[in-house]
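Data deposition worksheet. Section B asks for the primary sequence of the deposited chain exactly as it was used as input, without tags or linkers unless they were present during the calculation. Section C holds the resulting structure in token form. Section D is free text for depositor observations; keep each observation to a single sentence. Incomplete worksheets are returned to the depositor.
Section A, Depositor: J.P.
Section B:
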Amino acid sequence: MASFVNHFAWQGKVFDPAKGTLRNKIFPFGLNAIIAKVYKGPSWLDNKECIVLDYSETSLLAHWIRDEIREVASRVYLGKVYWSKKRLIDFALEFPASG
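Section C:
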């Protein structure tokens, strides 16, 4: 299932720090869609600070989804996905080295 989703649906996230948003890359051809607001806020898991990927005001398809991410190693983030406050899955994001 994860392999199918990775190859045919979700391809990653593209952050725009200037706008405080991200777009999810979807489909095999990498369409940038499904926009989220990005900001720091308290986690639904433990109320500690996290980076929130909030789709509630920016996406008709995913308005009930909230992702939370925290850095767990240099440029590596662990993410939690919530559907209306119910935790669904975990994921990891890795950012390339700058420069």
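Section D:
The CA atoms of residues 44 and 85 lie 7 Å apart.
Confidence is low (pLDDT under 50) at residues 4-8.
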